[in-house]
């Protein structure tokens, strides 16, 4: 794979390489990069790992973010942060204020 140019490789090709590694190594835990990492290769690897580790027969995933119980659990956690039964977290990427705004 080309260094610092994974964005030039179709995601499916990267997914296939990661899938071969996972199938060969059979790891118990996989840690990957944050999707917002500034290194373009890290973002591509994040997407490939998440694609490979999607829930499917023969590949158990604990507390997958898409499972109903996991979604409820995360909503309760964010709700506890803001003082309500459930909430959805978000990341503010950019904040634009008008001149003279104090908020």
Quick take:
The chain has three helices and no strands. It is mainly alpha-helical.
Helix-strand layout with pairing:
Elements lengths: L10 H15 L14 H13 L15 H15 L21
Keywords:
103 residues, 3 helices
Please give a structural write-up.
This protein has 103 residues and is mainly alpha-helical. The chain has one domain (6-82). 42% of the residues lie in helices and 0% in strands. The chain has helices at 11-25, 40-52, 68-82. Helix 1 (11-25) packs across helix 2 (40-52). The longest helix has 15 residues, at 11-25. The radius of gyration is 18 Å and the shape is flat. The model has no long low-confidence stretch (mean pLDDT 84).
Instruction: Flag low-confidence runs.
Output: none
- Give the beta-strand count: 0
Rg result: 18 Å
Termini Cα gap:
46 Å
Q: Write down the secondary-structure element order.
A: HHH
Helix content: 40-55%
Tally of discrete structural domains? 1
Shape, per Cα inertia axes: flat
């Amino acid at each position: 794979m080309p260094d610092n140019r994974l964005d030039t490789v179709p995601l499916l090709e990267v997914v296939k390489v990661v899938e071969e590694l996972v199938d060969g190594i059979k790891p118990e835990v996989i840690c990957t990069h944050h999707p917002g990492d500034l290194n373009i290769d890290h973002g591509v690897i994040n997407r490939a790992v998440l694609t490979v580790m999607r829930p499917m027969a023969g590949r158990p995933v604990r507390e997958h973010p898409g499972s109903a119980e996991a979604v409820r659990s995360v909503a309760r956690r964010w709700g506890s942060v803001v003082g309500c039964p459930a909430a959805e977290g978000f990341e503010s990427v950019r904040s634009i204020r008008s001149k003279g705004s104090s908020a």
